[in-house]
């Protein structure tokens, strides 16, 4: 199946490249980010200077010129049309109990600034301690439970500002 990729170079030039075009390209990997390319009997040295996989954006140096390249396929356009964004930031405003259990420890206070993956609390469920971590950077707005409280599944535990 021949896939088509839409590319934008230096936010100016738009190209369509299909898998057949790519297979015709004679490229040899010299190192992890360097390639030697032959196309139409011309030699090119290419280096991937920067890459952002989530945004599908690359900065590529070919011979002595640097190009900014974005590559998109049909799925990328569909995701964008549906209003979703790949790699977008998480914006969760509350933490709810993932299961019934007992609050063993609360590691934060109201007004405290937390970073993504900081431990918020420990919930014991089925004789196992479950660490509940912050899904994002933020400030604790409220804590609706206390140490040694029994909680039900989906019960509100912590709110972010």
From TrEMBL:
What's one Pfam family the UniProt record gives for this protein? Biotin_lipoyl
Gene3D superfamilies named among the record's database cross-references: 2.40.50.100
- Domain Lipoyl-binding intervals: 83-161
Q: Which UniProt keywords apply?
A: Biotin
The signal peptide, as residue positions, is none
Coiled-coil segments: none
Can you tell which superkingdom this protein's organism belongs to?
Bacteria
Cross-referenced InterPro entries: Biotin_BS, Biotin_Carboxyl_Carrier/Decarb, Biotin_lipoyl, Single_hybrid_motif
Concerning PANTHER family, the annotation shows: OXALOACETATE DECARBOXYLASE ALPHA CHAIN
Q: What is this protein called?
A: Biotin-dependent enzyme
Gene source species:
Seonamhaeicola aphaedonensis
